[in-house]
Amino acid sequence: MEKTATPQAKPKNKHFWNFQPASGDNPPELILYGDIASETWWGDEVTPRQFTEELDALGAVPEIVVRINSGGGDVFAANAIYTRLKDNAAKITVKIDGWAASAATIIAMAGDSIEIPGNGVFMVHDPALGLLGYFNETELAKMTDELKVIKQSIVNAYTLKTGKDAADVAAIMAAETWYDGKQAVDAGFCDKLMFEDAETTVENAAKVVVNSVSLDLTRFPNMPVSLLNRMTARTPGGFSNKTNHKNTEKERNTMDGIEKITTVDGLKAAFPDLTRQIEDAATTAERKRIQDIEDVALAGYESIVNDAKFNNPIAAGDVAKAIVAAQKKQGGTYIKNRDDDAQKSGAGDVGAGAHEGAGDDGGDNDIDNAIDKLFPVTK
């Protein structure tokens, strides 16, 4: 018997979205959680057509809520969804339930209103092209030109929403800029803060779970660690790890995979705002210390003052004590020198009559009397 050929199954398209119809007073929703298409829409006629059919099936509704919690993905898929949402007659309300990074932010720009939680994340960067194989100079130059066109299309979406100059937006993208919720609103990429926070779990330095959606951080090597700290600041330990309470001592010492901070530069990288406040406070305190020293400084004691200001920093009160001590030392030396001079001059051999004759006014020499008052001899 001859074997009959088994028909090959049609490749399944990536169905990475989910439409939920209207329910009661709640408008229909488009849920975009996770990666935006792991395979490209480039040359794919099935996936974008299916998305359009499901969008049209919602009918003529006054509003569509688009919920995003995604680290990004395929830029062509994002651009296609953006275009279809912008072309829809309904009001598009975008709610970033946790993260919108990379290509996910393109879809967000379709919103007539964009909301984000205070501890949410919004990140924009330049498009990138993954290569596998061998290419000559002409082919690589063509790919570079394509990237420029892709970036310009993204810039156009950002400028339309934010009102920023295209050059400014291009620079923000080139710098791979990360925003928390408030910063995204201040920068004009989002319109207002949502009242709720995103439930965030940091499992390790390469993985974060936001509202039950796992996001791979290895794609974003430049993500500032301080942003994770701000995201999870509402939890007692700074980081939430609800799914694993049996951490080893090593894991606890490394803050769930983030290495313990051992250098000043590491501290600044992890907590830039806090370290800046500390530096500002230290600068203010040092300026006040210098000014207080200047206030108690006396001419002739510059060495004490300069040493206290620069070499061996001490408070102004300690400087004043050092000056007084120096004055007493100088006074005692003067008295000793004066006594020595009197002994050497033979004045002690002169009789009482001479002493009485020296002070017809009945008192000691006025200058010596003043010195004795300032620097009394201690017996």
TrEMBL record:
It comes from the Bacteria. Keywords: Hydrolase, Protease, Serine protease. It holds the Pfam family CLP_protease. Coiled coil: none annotated. Residues 1-22, 335-379 are annotated as: Disordered. Residues 359-369 have a biased composition (Acidic residues). Gene3D superfamilies: 2-enoyl-CoA Hydratase, Chain A, domain 1. This is Clp protease ClpP. It comes from Butyricicoccus faecihominis.
